[in-house]
Amino acid sequence: MRHDLTNRVALISGASRGLGAAIAVKLGQCGARVAVNYLTNQREALMVAGRIKADGGTSEIFAADVRDEPQVSLLAKKVSETLGSVDILVINATGPQPPAGLENLTWQGCLEQLEFFVKSPLLLVQSVLASMKKRRYGRIINIGSEVFELGIPELSSYVSAKAAQLGLTRSWAKELAPWGITVNLVAPGWIPTQRHDAVTQSAKDAYMRQVPLGRMGVPEDVASVVAFLASDAAGFITGQKLAVNGGNTLG
């Protein structure tokens, strides 16, 4: 299904590859003018923007570390000047999630996850909020994870930061509802992308055996749900977590 996002401006953080790239391409196919944010992978970001343009869409790339306040402020300014005020904000950027048993877990390790999943969402939302409130319209979509429900051992820094991201989603949804701004979270299951190239097939097979629908997800599964939440069809949905994991978690 193609949701009509014509004349909407979408900013996707961490969109040079993986889930972010698939989301950017999908929103472009739906007619949005797409701002592809990246940190270091300029070549891959250009390829994503190129795919959108090849489909007849509009897209530009924007380098910024979305954990850095001055860079995020400049990012929002450049996107607005180039493509227009942001209507759709997809908070997707992530970093490494190194495992650490409790004995070796450090506060710094926890902070590094919170930088991506609490600080970055805060900075990004604040950078576009005044414009959204003025126009009484906005779609804010966090990309979360099923790990909050699963409680993965030796990943407590990542799991707790993702739980905090869900908390932000729910509180911001109620706070921003009077301005017609919706805030939701999409929680993918394990969807292999480039960052999982080193994972063995046996590990993927073991995960897949747990999934009721009997297959691994693909980035386009997530992108389609994001496109729906970004559209007018989802105008009465806010504060929700939508799991995209083939039934691996329920509720």
Walk me through the structure.
This protein is α/β, with parallel strands linked by helices and 251 residues long. The protein has a single domain, classed as Rossmann fold, CATH 3.40.50. Helices cover 45% and strands 15% of the residues. The chain has a 7-stranded parallel β-sheet, sandwiched between helices. Helix 2 links the parallel strand 2 and strand 3. The longest helix is centred in the middle third of the chain and has 29 residues.
Q: What is the name of the CATH topology?
A: Rossmann fold
Q: Could you give the order of the helices and strands?
A: EHEHEHEHEHHEHHE
Spatial strand order of the main sheet: 3-2-1-4-5-6-7
Domains, number: 1
Number of helices: 8
- CATH second-level architecture: 3-Layer(aba) Sandwich
Rg for CA atoms: 17 Å
Portion in helices = 40-55%
The major pleated sheet works out as:
7 strands, parallel
- CATH superfamily name? NAD(P)-binding Rossmann-like Domain
The level-1 CATH class: Alpha Beta
Sequence-ordered SSE layout with sheet pairings:
Blueprint: E1 9-12, H1 18-29, E2 33-38, H2 42-54, E3 58-63, H3 69-82, E4 88-91, H4 107-135, E5 138-143, H5 147-150, H6 156-176, E6 181-188, H7 201-208, H8 219-230, E7 241-244
Parallel strand pairs: 1-2, 1-4, 2-3, 4-5, 5-6, 6-7
